[in-house]
Amino acid sequence: MTDPSALTAEAIAAIGKARTATELERVEVEYLGRKSGRVSKLLEGIGALNPEERAALGKAVNEAKRTIEEALSARRSQLEASRLADLAETEAIDVTFPGPPLERGHIHVLTQVRRQIETILESLGYQVELGPEVETEWFNFEALNITAGHPAREMWDSFYFSPELLLRAHTSPVQIHAMLRIKEPPIYIITPGRCYRRDAPEATRLPYFSQVEGLAVDRGLTFGDLKGTLLYMIQSLYGRERRVRVRPSFFPFTEPSFEFDVSCGICGGMGCKSCRHKGWLEVGGCGMVHPQVLRNGGIDPTQWNGYAWGFGIERMAMLKHDVDDMRLFYESDLRFLEQF
Ligand code: PHE
Fold first, then answer.
1. Residue finishing a domain among 46, 62, 90
2. How many A from CA of 312 to the centre of ligand 1?
3. Which residues line ligand 1 (CB under 6 A)?
4. Residue 9 lies in a domain
5. pLDDT tens per residue across span 203-260
6. Cα torsion for 233, 236, 238, 239, to the nearest 10°?
7. Taking CA 258 as the corner, what is the angle to CA 135 and CA 280, rounded to the nearest 5 degrees?
8. Domain check: are 83 and 129 in the same one?
9. Pocket test for ligand 1, best of 141, 168, 170, 221 (most atoms within 8 A of CB)
10. Are residues 160 and 295 in the same domain?
């Protein structure tokens, strides 16, 4: 039969060697396990001893149990303390460690082009004026001389909230807002902004798009002032070699009215595949402000006159960057957007 104090010494040595809580638990089971633990086994055959020997062995075994338990608990605290110390070492947060790189975005190509146009026109003295995207029938149509039932209304097939309220179909209503707000000419404003029309998305038109409207009201303005302004803007944006031409057209709010084109940047106006052999690319509409529109804006047309234009920013960006499908601007495909 093993001697309790020898077993105790053995157990204490094993406890000292345990490196982890799991190893320690194995030692505990080996020595103090309820049935097959080695300390319990010391009591096997106790029945054959006389009462004195029995009492002595019981006492020695209890002593051994207590000593081993104490050693276990001391070692357990030791191991836990060193585990925590290791954790503090290995899991410490290094606040000086550089973070994962953040990808930097950039300004959307349409915003870039809009800002370029704004900068060019601001250098001529125009100021940016903004207007609401939800408009009344009066501002979007009536005040611009586009009376109900006029066939020209078909040019602006609009989204209505009610018979009175709609999403603006062009930026021209801001002409009226600007005149009513500023009251005293001279007025030189540009108004960039989103417009809406009931068109299915196609390569060359979208149900939502952006325009830049221009309006000048002053004394004795001529069509030459308008064309010179457009030429300056086009050449600043596309290069000095580009030319502007106008063709007679019709808008109820300008008289006379024109469409304006820019010479093709690829063939220089000779005609090529890119301009469908026309030599010119359509940009927008323009004209001298109709006297009735000045009156609707609270301005006396016998004292003042004006010119105005409007064109699509998407169209301008397509011409600038040789993009052949307007929908690309709004599809948020990074492979497309990252090019600009
Ligand atoms: N508002 C017109 C359009 O959307 C463009 C335009 C603006 C024409 C100003 C003439 C003068 O088609």
1. 90
2. 10
3. 170, 172, 213, 251, 254, 285-287, 308-310
4. yes
5. 999 999 999 999 999 999 999 999 999 999 999 999 999 999 999 999 999 999 999 9
6. 130
7. 115
8. no
9. 170
10. yes
